[in-house]
Description:
Structural class: mainly alpha
Helix content: over 70%
Largest sheet: none
Number of domains: 1
Shape: elongated
Keywords: Membrane, Transmembrane, Transmembrane helix
Transmembrane segments: 26-51, 63-80, 101-122
Distance between the termini: 36 Å
Order of helices and strands: HHHHH
Amino acid sequence: MTIFDTFFLNFFQHYKTRKNKKAIKIATFYVSFLQCSLLLLLGVFFAGFFIQMHVDTMSSSKAWTLFVLVVVFIFFKNWMQYSGKKRNLLSAKMLKKKKRSYNIWILWLIPFGILCLTYILFQAI
């Protein structure tokens, strides 16, 4: 079970009691948003690294196109993964293990913190 699975289950359990019908969508959106923000951070880091090394691998427009395609893939993958049988298996595994819960506000701040780091790196380029 990955950290993204744990975050998904924490979001799902938190919003299941409040917004029963939208809990899966909110949790899936959160995990996808977190993964996309991490991908953007890595992309900006490597773009800055390649600029410093004077390596011309890809133009900026092609990199943004690739990023958008990967984001669509991530959303589709998470939609397929967390709306089916795997969610039931993860819930069963979570019941067997000691439940580790995270503060929901801290979890919401993680992607925005990553986006702030991305902006700082982007300004440094």
